[in-house]
């Protein structure tokens, strides 16, 4: 796994043209186009966005964590958006139907689930371009944007504005992440 991958931006170029996550659209796991995430995130205080995979060594721990966070904090304004991704060692090879069954039935996930996307590179989904550019992954000094390193990279985003993005790496401490969630929901 190459942890030093990044995209070099041209002078004055931004990886994402959007000013807020809430402006960006996506396709949900059933194939329904959502024009703007803001339409489905009204009233949410905090958004946790995760790139997920069903065949990864980190799968069980992270799906258990997402369920725990959702169950514990959804009434306080947390929403979780899970985006399947097959970019890392092809660890999410399934189609929509199998991905949905895995997340909903096997893992008991009730949070929002979306269609499979790329999170890095030229074909990265606009949501992940925005998240990478507006988080610690962006280095203003050399105008580079770091790649998400593996499955289960996590981003916390302010639900009211769709900004204030914080990146939490795949192997980051989940207790620290829960403490951040709890603090930002106060």
Automatic annotation (TrEMBL):
Recorded superkingdom: Eukaryota
GO molecular function: peroxidase activity
Location of the Thioredoxin domain: 15-186
GO biological process, any: response to oxidative stress
Pfam families given in the database record: GSHPx
Keyword Oxidoreductase part of the UniProt annotation: yes
Active site location: 56
CDD domains reported for this sequence: GSH_Peroxidase
Keyword annotations of the record: Oxidoreductase, Peroxidase
Cross-referenced SUPFAM superfamilies: Thioredoxin-like
Entry's family note: Belongs to the glutathione peroxidase family.
Protein name, UniProt field: Glutathione peroxidase
UniProt source species: Halteria grandinella
């Amino acid at each position: 796994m190459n942890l030093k991958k990044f995209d070099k931006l041209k002078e004055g170029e931004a990886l994402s043209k959007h000013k807020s996550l809430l402006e960006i659209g996506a396709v949900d796991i059933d194939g329904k186009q959502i024009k703007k995430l803001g339409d489905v995130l009204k009233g949410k205080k905090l958004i946790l966005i995760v790139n997920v995979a069903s065949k990864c060594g980190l799968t069980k721990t992270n799906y258990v964590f997402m369920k725990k966070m959702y169950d514990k904090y959804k009434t306080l304004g947390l929403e979780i958006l899970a985006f399947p991704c097959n970019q890392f060692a092809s660890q999410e090879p399934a189609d929509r139907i199998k991905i949905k069954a895995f997340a909903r039935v096997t893992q008991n996930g009730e949070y929002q689930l979306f269609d499979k996307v790329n999170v890095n590179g030229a074909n990265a989904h606009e949501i992940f371009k925005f998240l990478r550019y507006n988080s610690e992954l962006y280095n203003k000094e050399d105008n580079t944007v770091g790649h998400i390193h593996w499955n289960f990279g996590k981003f916390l985003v302010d639900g009211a504005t769709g900004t204030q993005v914080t990146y939490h790496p795949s192997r980051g401490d989940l207790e620290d992440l829960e403490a951040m969630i709890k603090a930002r929901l106060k």
